[in-house]
Design a protein that fits this description.
Blueprint lengths: L1 H25 L8 H29 L1 H13 L39 E5 L6 E6 L3 H18 L4 H17 L1 H12 L3 H26 L3 E3 L8 E9 L2 E5 L5 H14 L3 E5 L5 H17 L7 E4 L3 H9 L5 E5 L2 H11 L6 E4 L4 E5 L5 H13 L9 E7 H16 L19 H16 L3 E4 L15 E4 L6 H4 L6 E7 L4 H9 L3 E2 L2 E4 L3 H8 L8 E2 L4 H4 L8 E2 L2 E2 L4 H6 L2 E9 L18 H16 L3 H14 L1
Parallel strand pairs: 5-6, 5-8, 6-7, 8-9, 10-11, 10-16, 11-14, 13-14, 16-17
Antiparallel strand pairs: 1-2, 3-4, 4-20, 9-19, 12-13, 15-18
Length: about 625
Amino acid sequence: SNTTMASTCEASAVHSGIAQIALKLFSADAQAADPAVTKIISILLLCTSTFFVIALHYVNKEWKLGRDIKLSLEALFQRVPDISGSINLPKVDGNDEKQGGTVNKPLSLIDPASPSLVQCYSPSSLSKIGTVPNLSATEVSDMALRSKNAQQVWKSTTFAQRRRVLRTLQKYVVSHVDEICLLCAKDSGKTQVDALLGEILTTCEKIRTLLHHGETWLERSPREVNPMMMHKTAYVEYVPLGVLGIIAPWNYPFHNMLNHVLSGIFSGNGVVTKCSEHTSWSSMYFHNICRAALEENGFDPDLVQLCTGMAETGKALVECPHIDKIFFTGSPNVGRHVMKGAAPFLKPVVLELGGKDAMVFCDDVKLKEVIPWAMRGCFQNCGQNCCGVERLFVYESIAKDFINGIKDKVASMRQGCPLGDDVDCGAMVMDQQCDLIQVLVDDAVAKGAIVHCGGKRNTTTAGQFYQPTLLSGVTSEMRIWKEEVFGPIMCVVVVPGDNDDVCVNMVNDCPFGLGSSVYSASKSRALAIGSQFNTGMFTANDFGVNYLIQSLPFGGVKESGFGRFAGPEGLRSCCLERSMVIDRIPGVKTTIPGAIDYPMNTTQGMGFGKGLVELFYGDTLWGKVKAIVNLIRHG
């Protein structure tokens, strides 16, 4: 018929047009006289194009190419302000704290003559460096309320706006590495290299990870629906909680100041931080960086607040009605007090409570390669490291050679003020920690342990120093086996018979469970051993990289606490996880069937309900047919 002929001509014209495009793309000869060839070329091009589009969709879904392009263009063309002019960091002169001073006793944090102030001093020289307010509960509440008010606007910002604030922060940090490291060294006694590794590197990677993945992690999370609800769409959305309360420790003042602020504000929250009374001096300056980044981008700096003071200030933050969740990092004992303080308000808490991390050297390792890892694991930040190595398990056949090979390295470590000459090991932030370490070392020695070097305070300087110590012969009867040291002590434990199973049992004989690592020439062996450890984190043939991979959650089990920060789990823990259900098909909605509507008819209601159960959960075809009949009869 004429209609059929017209359709055929139109189809031929379409094929011819597509074939012409293909020939122009791939051949100089754009003529295709044969209709059959034209049709084949057309179909091949259509199939290829369809395959390419589908492949691109799945590649983008897997690798987030669209996101990467968007973020690259954002970083390339959207410049961020320089806040250097808004921040007045104090100048720290490398010669302003001389060793061998006359001060040999740390200041009291509270001067009885001025109880409203906290005195700040440098642990490496014991010299006073300033004061900060000792805030009352009323002042803490006022700060939290200001953050809450600012959050009402901030929660509606776009992720692009939040990234801009974080990029402003990162720009400042990258251009002021030396100044930040010097402030950390002065206030916490760490070496400048330890500050760069533990303060700068980790913070920059935290920012980079949030910039790159944060929006993706907080996108709606689609969820599967069951057959009964096939007309519905279900997903989880991540909504800002409100104001987060942070109680930060003293071992990494810069990173601990920014860590939860970064994830908190990126997830749309306000953040109130209570910094440690031992590192409040530098925290005040670091806090100003956060405020300046917000203000320079047109946002209310009151979104972030810093509380300084003693234990009562932290208690006030936990109990403050304007705080919606607490993130605490510190000791198990104080962590229990935080839980107790939050319990009457049913306020959720995340507790990171330290560890007693194990590093294992199997009999097949090369000692020359692993000794540097033992040194870094035990003495990074003078051992004041949540995931620092506190137990070094060395297989029996290599234990003697290991001790002989590392003894001189430990004994030759240079210790002193980190602002002057080159030093390998800095000061202890808390003077009483030196006393605790001495008690643990003395207990171990009394029960048979051997001190190869160190083992006492370093009294050659004015500061709070404990000598880098090598201790062997450590056994489970000693307090140091299970109690956290948090100092520059390398505890060597011999694994008898080079037995992997024995090693696993020894490692797990511990109340803590934060991180762990195993070194072996066989990756599969290291993984087989480590997978049996009762710890929140494990690394094969490496140390400390879990935290540098910020897409991983950080946290532990047992006395190491619960909850996670970092990774999608940590970012989402700053949010309310809200379950959402909406209609999938326009015009199709749920109604209440008459059989189960009020007033109830028990016979009809039970018959209808049993029909639903049999239809969706019965396992026979005949049963499902009968269920449909029952639904019709009773519905």
